[in-house]
Every structure is written in C-alpha cells, then in structure tokens.
Amino acid sequence: xxxxxxxxxxxxxxxxxxxxxxxxxxxxxxxxxxxxxxxxxxxxxxxxxxxxxxxxxxxxxxxxxxxxxxxxxxxxxxxxxxxxxxxxxxxxxxxxxxxxxxxxxxxxxxxxxxxxxxxxxxxxxxxxxxxxxxxxxxxxxxxxxxxxxxxxxxxxxxxxxxxxxxxxxxxxxxxxxxxxxxxxxxxxxxxxxxxxxxxxxxxxxxxxxxxxxxxxxxxxxxxxxxxx
Length: 228
What we know:
The chain has about 230 residues and is mainly β. Helices cover about 5% and strands about 30% of the residues. It is built from 2 helices and 28 strands. It has helices at about 5, 30-40, and strands at about 45, 45-50, 55, 60, 65, 70, 75-80, 85, 90, 95, 100-105, 105-110, 110-115, 120, 125, 130, 135, 140, 155, 160, 170, 175-180, 185, 190, 195, 200, 205, 210. The N and C termini lie far apart (about 60 Å).
C-alpha cells in the first residue's frame, strides 16, 4: 500500500507529475522543491477578506479567499476555490489543491494537499501528503522529525525500511478522517477511507477502511458538595 495509486486518486491533483515513476509515495516529497521551482508561475487571482501577507513566488487561483492575518510564503501554489482563513501560516514549498480549507492557526510547510482537503483548525502539517478529501479534526498535529538521529523508517513487509528522509510526517490516503487533538508520528501512513478517534497518538501503517478506536478509561462518580 505504499505506491501512490494505493493511497491517492492522482486525477484529484493538477500536480500528479510529482508521482511519475515513483515506487514509494513518500519519494514525491523529495521532488517537491524542484517541481515548484520548475512549474511555479507567480500570480494572485484570489479575493482578500482583510489585510494579509503574501510573499513573492506565490500562485493563488481564482475563487480562493484569503482572510485577514494569513501569511503565505513562497514557493507556494494554491488552487482555485480554497479558503485560507484568519491567521493561517503557509511557510513555503507547499502545494494546496482545489477546494481546500487551511484554517485558523494552521501551519503548513513542505507538503502537498490533494483537492478537497480540510485542515480547518489549529493543526501543524509538515513534510506530508494529504489525499483527496482528507480531513483533520481540530488540533491534529503531524510530527515530522524523529527525536533520535537518523532518517524516518517505515516498516515494509515486517522489516524497517529507510525512507531516505530525515523529515517525513504522514501520508494520508483519500477520504481519511483524523479525530481532534490526535498526533501522527513520523512516517505514519494511513490507508484510504480510514478513521481515527480523537486524542490518538499513532505511529506506523494503518490499512485502508479501518477505524482506530481510542477508548480512554473514564470514571463517573456522584458529585458531593463540600460539607455534606
């Protein structure tokens, strides 16, 4: 499930050429800088809802709204009909597809979002690829660097495999839904249509159409007022 076609509908990105000849989907991240350098044609076709900062080397498509307080650094390509909401921070080396939401206090760097992605509230996305209509609940964080030295490893057929990437966050397949305040640890790969409950800390590979149920133990007791 590591090939691009195993995770992503490549017709749902104008930038599918990033994956040409790629065996492992994460290898597209190694091409991202070069692809942007070769293909970016800066132009701003968006509408503004208040003052924002947009640097050079940025393309924004028609119908996209950039709200007050957003900061967008290049090189970045943002497609048509997106919402870049108040205080969003796009740090560069980013491609955002069509009809996407990048919300309040969300930060993106060195990542690709397929069409229809929603990252609406308080999230960090780095060195990652989010598939068609992937959705992150509020506060989801992608961890993209190991605490220990060395490249990020992915288990392939039971054996650790060196991705060649010191920074690698997550591959989210199409239609994945990640619950609020979850943490996706470096090298996480989530298959198409899978769902993750809130407050999950995930590491590793999750096959398609699975549900990760994080059932925290809770205790309910009778409330007794002081003096009783």
